[in-house]
């Protein structure tokens, strides 16, 4: 990043333009109007006092609590009287972002493994073409899907999700046959004087269910996390009200990243943010930080919380027990989807999983597409 | 601090509102730039109160719109008074009025029910418009607000576009239950209101309740400690004031475990929190005494 300073410019106006430019380069979304208002602010007398000037520009240029850090750095560098004391910090920030990006490969790990390791092809996933193959793909455990089938799986996910969404919508509208709306009816029938011919109905406003997803991306979930993430991403593009988090040793919110139109773009950004991909698992602690930071805002009486995890926890089962119960108190329904449950003879014996189970409303498997499609039932009955 | 801001702080002080320099600067800027202000922060830190005090300070009417899911145009902007229209048509049946005239008349100001947003725009005197908890409203409503916030005008099909006679001072508050759209944020000044510092909270409690300084100090420290715990519902300033009031009413001079136990409901609003704190009352009291 080019270091800029207000002394590089001739007038106050030019300085402000320079500052806007610098903020923009550092990722703040600053428009022309903001610059104009910045100039106005300075003219209002704010320029006489550094502190007031700082507060004023901050309220103009920051649109989020998180943006304050960036703004602070920019402000200090640009308007500082003497040396660029904080310059190195900004540069470092820029750099670290770049290096993190390369970790994208980690995200795809679940996939690459498949390519490298020559595994005996499983009965279920034999390359048979046609409908039966699609059908089989639905039942195949994610950890056993071959890379060749991936494209087909993509299409299948897309198709099934569309079905799921239309079905959900139909169910919701059909269930709400409304009352007669007198006011509207009268208005509609003004033309016919005393006769009321056309009746209007009042429909109950459909209350949207909020979906909160907590996805485990620790090492033990590697085989599944890629598919599950993909699933979460496609859910986001179909349903509006989704909050998503990933966790292994700590918790990261990814709701904003899911907005990207391209899955790969989402993934790149995610891996830039997630430093703990494929790490250990501290489910209890992560759920704890979810409870502390986000639960109050994100969860309410209409939210359905879904935890996607294998429940293999390194932490204290008691913590897990407490935190899962806390979530349970705030949400309408708590669903735990466990990929391991798809295995024959699986029983939730892991200490953490055992501790969490009493608070969970619904404990299901999530190892193949079929099991994910069962989400429909969860969502529509919520 | 520039003198204008200092003046504003003093003036607010007379109105019994304690404000730190940053918020005062932002409020001053809001009035000067005539730009909406978005206040974000946890519940109970005085976001709504800021709008109240601005309306006092300016001596303008405060028009408040409480947002909720499903808020729509007919409850936020305007609605035609259908019953009155019908009645009027019935009554004027005998008179020979052309349909056009009739229509013009029943879709006039007289039959218009003004809701907060329209009221704020059409009021003869400048007003302060408080759009409370905008994060609860739907995204569709947010999009609608954009037109209002950038041009201060509203379109009503039957009447045409109504422009604001006076630009109202607009304050939006949000508890951050969801992210607001960038477009909306771009049009606003932004300020994050956090839980107050010890000194500020003490000043607020002293202003609102009064009483012995020692017990108030202890009480504020106690609440500060509570905020540091992982409680289900973190107490805001309003709770501190409630609690102080309760203790003053009970003529308390010092904080004792029994006293706190019987009044803890003023500040903690969840059974689980109360039980947790009750267990360690004496140790907390020791930690928070000066």
Model description:
The complex is a heterodimer of chains A (382) and B (290). Chain A has 382 residues and is α/β, with parallel strands linked by helices. Chain A has 3 domains: 6-101, no CATH class; 106-175 and 207-382, Rossmann fold (3-Layer(aba) Sandwich); 176-206, no CATH class. Helix content of chain A is 51%, strand content 9%. Chain A has 17 helices and 8 strands. In chain A, strands 5-4-3-6-7-8 form a 6-stranded mixed sheet, sandwiched between helices. In chain A, helix 2 runs antiparallel to helix 3 and helix 5 (87-101) crosses helix 12. Chain A starts with 11 loop residues before the first helix and ends with a helix. Mean pLDDT of chain A is 73; it is low at 83-130 and 171-177. Chain B has 290 residues and is an alpha/beta fold. Chain B is built from 15 helices and 9 strands. Chain B has helices spanning 3-14, 21-33, 47-58, 73-76, 82-91, 99-106, 116-122, 139-151, 182-186, 198-208, 213-228, 237-249, 257-263, 271-279, 281-288, and strands spanning 37-40, 61-66, 78-80, 112-114, 127-132, 153-156, 160-163, 169-174, 189-192. Chain B has a 5-stranded parallel sheet, with helices on both faces. A two-stranded antiparallel sheet of chain B has the order 3-4. A two-stranded antiparallel ribbon of chain B has the order 6-7. In chain B, strand 6 (153-156) and strand 7 form a beta hairpin. In chain B, helix 1 (3-14) crosses helix 2, helix 10 (198-208) packs across helix 11 and helix 10 (198-208) packs across helix 12 (237-249). Chain B is elongated and about 85 Å long. The model of chain B has no long low-confidence stretch (mean pLDDT 89). The interface between A and B is large, with 42 and 39 residues.
């Amino acid at each position: 990043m080019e270091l800029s300073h207000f002394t590089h410019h001739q007038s106050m106006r030019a300085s402000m333009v320079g500052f806007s430019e610098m903020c923009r380069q550092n990722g703040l979304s600053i428009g022309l109007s903001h610059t104009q208002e910045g100039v106005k602010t300075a003219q209002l007398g704010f320029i006489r006092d550094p502190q007031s000037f700082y507060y004023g520009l901050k309220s103009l240029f920051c649109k989020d609590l998180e943006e304050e850090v960036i703004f602070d750095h920019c402000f200090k560098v640009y308007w500082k009287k003497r040396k660029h004391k904080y310059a190195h910090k900004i540069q470092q920030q820029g750099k670290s972002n770049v290096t993190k990006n390369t970790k994208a490969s980690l995200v795809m790990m679940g996939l690459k493994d498949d390519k490298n390791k020559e595994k005996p092809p499983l009965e279920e996933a034999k390359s048979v073409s046609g409908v039966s193959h699609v059908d089989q793909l639905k039942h195949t455990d994610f950890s056993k899907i071959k890379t060749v089938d991936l494209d087909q799986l993509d299409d299948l996910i897309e198709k099934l999700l569309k079905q799921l969404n239309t079905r959900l919508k139909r169910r919701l509208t059909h269930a709400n046959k409304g009352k007669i709306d007198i006011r509207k009816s009268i208005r509609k029938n003004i033309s016919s004087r005393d006769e009321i011919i056309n009746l209007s109905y009042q429909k109950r406003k459909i209350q949207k269910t909020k979906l909160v997803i907590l996805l485990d991306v620790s090492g033990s979930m590697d085989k599944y996390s890629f598919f599950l993430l993909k699933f979460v991403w496609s859910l986001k593009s179909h349903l509006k009200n989704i909050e998503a988090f990933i966790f292994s040793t700590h918790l990261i919110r990814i709701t904003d990243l899911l907005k990207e139109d391209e899955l790969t773009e989402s993934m790149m950004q995610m891996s830039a943010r997630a430093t703990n991909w494929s790490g250990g698992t501290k489910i209890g602690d992560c759920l704890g930080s979810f409870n502390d930071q986000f639960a109050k805002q994100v969860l309410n009486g209409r939210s359905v919380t879904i935890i996607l995890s294998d429940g293999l926890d390194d932490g204290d089962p008691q913590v897990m027990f407490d935190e899962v119960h806390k979530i349970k108190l705030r949400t309408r329904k708590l669903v735990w989807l466990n990929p391991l449950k798809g295995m024959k003879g699986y029983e939730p014996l892991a200490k953490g999983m055992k501790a969490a189970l009493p608070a969970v409303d619904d404990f299901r498997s999530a190892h193949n597409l079929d099991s994910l499609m069962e989400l429909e039932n969860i969502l529509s009955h919520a | 601090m520039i003198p204008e801001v200092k003046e504003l702080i003093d003036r607010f002080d007379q109105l019994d509102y304690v404000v730190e320099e940053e918020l005062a600067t932002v409020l001053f800027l809001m009035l000067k730039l005539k730009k909406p202000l978005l206040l974000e922060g946890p519940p109970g830190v005085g976001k709504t109160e800021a709008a109240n005090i601005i309306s006092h300070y300016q001596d303008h009417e405060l028009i408040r719109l409480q947002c909720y899911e499903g808020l729509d145009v007919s409850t936020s902007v305007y609605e035609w008074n259908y019953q009155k229209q019908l009645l009027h048509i019935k009554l004027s049946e005998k008179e020979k009025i052309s349909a056009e005239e009739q229509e013009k008349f029943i879709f006039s100001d007289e039959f218009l029910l003004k809701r907060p947003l329209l009221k704020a725009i059409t009021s003869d005197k400048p007003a302060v418009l408080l759009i409370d908890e905008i994060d609860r409203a739907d995204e569709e409503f947010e999009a609608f607000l954009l037109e209002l916030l950038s041009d201060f005008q509203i379109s009503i099909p039957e009447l045409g576009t109504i422009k604001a006679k006076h630009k109202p001072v607009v304050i939006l508050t949000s508890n951050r239950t969801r992210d607001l759209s960038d477009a909306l944020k771009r049009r606003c000044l932004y300020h994050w209101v956090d839980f107050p510092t010890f000194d500020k909270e003490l000043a607020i409690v002293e202003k609102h309740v009064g009483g012995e300084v020692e017990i108030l100090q202890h009480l504020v420290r106690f609440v500060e400690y509570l905020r540091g715990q992982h409680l289900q519902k973190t107490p805001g300033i309003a709770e501190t004031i409630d609690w102080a009031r309760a203790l003053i009413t009970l003529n308390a001079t010092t904080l004792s475990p029994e006293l706190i136990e019987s009044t803890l409901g003023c500040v903690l609003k969840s059974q689980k929190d109360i039980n947790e704190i009750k267990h360690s009352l004496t140790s907390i009291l020791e930690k928070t005494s000066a």
